[in-house]
Specification:
By secondary structure, the protein is α/β, with parallel strands linked by helices. It folds into two domains: about 140 residues, Rossmann fold (3-Layer(aba) Sandwich), CATH 3.40.50.1360; about 80 residues, Alpha-Beta Plaits. It is built from six helices and 13 strands. The longest helix is centred in the first third of the chain and has 15 residues. It is globular and about 55 Å long. The termini are far apart. The mean pLDDT is about 95. The structure holds ribose-5-phosphate (R5P).
Length: about 230
């Protein structure tokens, strides 16, 4: 199975969680895009759902393929969010934000009763950090914020190169909110919760890509088929 076929297979498996009348969080990225396309086929066949997109890119795709959209402010919470991830660990912690959509993704996931993550086997890690951690920062004072991130990382036992993400056309990448992204190459995140707690205390940090306690199910597509991992109830 090709990498793209695995993403499609994971997205197709997530359709099993969708029920008529649901309000859905629609993730961002190449795997989540497959979910939006496959969901559109169900909508065309009569499924009644409404989605809240986590990025302008997902909103554009959803409109193109015919998934009805609403805003988070127009509904009283979401039933289910289906989204991709850049990494997941055995505790269902995630790194997200490779596409820069982490802020809206986290807001939407936080307002959802359930988050199903669609991935392929390349995203499974014993410990987070091989994928650089995206940290969204305000443009104002971005360099000072980067220094504060380095200090917070040091205090929590993490170190590595911190770089502003570049836009494809040059200059700094900006998110849908007009913020910058710092990519932190920690390689090994030994204490995700301590790092997350330290990052949110920095004034210029808008949000970070550590998703701790959000995912309840991870669907993993591999060359041998689909595996569904369910987080044990507390
Ligand atoms: O900002 C982007 C999101 O967090 C994506 O869900 C994540 O980067 C995974 O994307 P993909 O499915 O393209 O690997």
């Amino acid at each position: 199975m090709s990498a793209d076929a695995m993403k499609r297979a994971a997205a197709a498996a997530a359709l099993d969680f969708v029920e008529p009348g649901m309000r859905l969080g629609l993730g961002t990225g190449s795997t989540a895009a497959w979910f939006v396309r496959l969901l559109a086929e169900k909508v065309t066949a009569g499924l009644d759902v409404v989605g809240v997109p986590t990025s302008e890119a997902t909103a554009t795709l959803a409109r193109e393929v015919g998934v009805p959209l609403t805003s988070l402010d127009a509904v009283a919470g979401l039933d289910l969010t289906v989204d991709g991830a850049d990494e997941f660990d055995p505790d269902f912690n995630l790194i997200k934000g490779g596409g820069g959509a982490l802020l809206r993704e986290k807001i939407v996931a936080a307002d959802s009763r359930r988050m199903v993550v669609i991935t392929d086997e390349s995203k499974a890690v014993a410990r987070l950090g091989a994928f650089p951690l995206p940290i969204e920062v305000t443009s104002f004072g971005a360099v000072a914020t980067l220094r504060a991130i380095a200090e917070a990382a040091r205090r929590t036992g993490h170190a590595g190169a911190l770089t502003f993400r570049a836009a494809p056309g040059g200059g700094r990448f900006t998110t849908d909110q007009g913020n910058a992204i710092v990519d932190a190459s920690f390689r090994q995140i030994s204490d995700p919760q301590a790092l997350a707690d330290a990052l949110v205390r920095i004034p210029g940090v808008v949000e970070h890509g550590l998703f701790i306690g959000y995912a309840s199910t991870v669907i993993v597509a591999g060359r041998d088929g689909i595996r569904r991992l369910d987080k044990p109830a507390n």
